[in-house]
Amino acid sequence: MPDGARRVANLRLFQGLLRQWAQEGLRDVVSAADHLARLERLGTQAPEAVSPHPDAAQLMTIHGSKGLEFPVVIVAGALRQGGGPAGAVRFDTQLGVALRLPRLEEDTPEWEALEAAQKERDTSESERVAYVAFTRAADLLILSVVSGTGPAPMKRFEDFLGNLPEAGVARTYLSPAEVLAPPPLTLQTAGGKPVLDVRSGPGVVLPGTLPVTSLGTFLGCPRAFAYRHLEGRSPLVTLWSARHAAEATNPEGRLAGRQIGDAVHRALEHGWTATELHKQLGYFAPPDLKTVTTLVQSFQGDVYAEVRDRPYQRERPIQVKLGDVTFEGIVDAFDPEGTLVLDYKTDRHVQPEHHLPQLALYAHHLGATRAALAYLRHDRLHVFEEGDLQRGLALVQDAVARLQARQFDPVPSPACRYCPFRGVCDAAPETP
């Protein structure tokens, strides 16, 4: 579904609430349902989960933002006050009640006292609401201020600036002329339906982190990278094929290649024997379990003798910051003594150059001088020497420079026929 990722995030948020309630004693379905019904009667509202898309904006009221925190918060109309005519009745628990009659030329002292008390309460409430809004920002707070004309709004604006913190906070002021208006998005019609075409242009915000594997995608085709990692598009071709052909092509409920690969990595990490494999992966379909066992046992072959018995650090998570981009990944195995990075592959195709940028980045971060790919389906070991890793790091640095320059032009090639985004990309060459 178009908003499937958001729905999944909300389900995970609800799962977290259920775990929290279980710790508080609501451990069964009936108790949890009763608690939900009670919250509904009280009108309790829970915020939605943060959007899984890194460039998404979440709109909410200030009151709805209580208890939340975001990297960037934009408060529109930070000095805006409520409008409308004042009421003809004032109430105060201490001063009593006063009426404002239109026939009187001057307000009574009682009315003026009640009006002054009301203004003080309104000011306090405005300050409290502003505090709630401003403290939602973890890194950057953007305030949009329309001061109006006349001495009163300007005085309020100056008082507002005087209450902002000075120490440890960098402040930047922009006049209206310095704030560029974004280009309008054009609404088109295709097949009788309105379509708002959003592309990854120069103004796109890069995610805070990217998986190391995204480097291969970017170097292969920046447009495909943008579809997957910036716009959050689903690989429509894959979803369509899976929906209409799953039962016909997979009657035994066979697992996908990624799940098999994950199982192989876990087995090699923990050193599972054949017996332990059957115990740990007993829920696998027999053909899948046989595939995993075969791939794990293939690592005992002579072709891998050079890299097999080493004092490895396994499944090591890393973060590497290059320029404005931070890459995250997990190194399958790292030998600090032999300065070797090892990566297991269960791919059906041998493509060492495709994985070179990933291994070069691992080696650069860990100080390794060699890297190896163990292609378990093919009994093949491919080793990158120091010169190869330097060449791969140059590819990574070039990719980062183009990422920061927001260069996402497509690279049409015969490989487009296998791209999961070929159904939405207008640059893919037509195939018969």
From TrEMBL:
Xref: Pfam families: PDDEXK_1 (PF12705), UvrD_C (PF13361)
Domain PD-(D/E)XK endonuclease-like span(s) in chain numbering: 212-426
Keywords for this protein: ATP-binding, DNA damage, DNA repair, DNA-binding, Exonuclease, Helicase, Hydrolase, Nuclease, Nucleotide-binding
Domain (UvrD-like helicase C-terminal) ranges: 34-146
Gene3D superfamilies listed in its UniProt record: 3.90.320.10, P-loop containing nucleotide triphosphate hydrolases
Keyword Transcription regulation: no
GO molecular function: helicase activity
Protein's name in the database: ATP-dependent helicase/nuclease subunit A
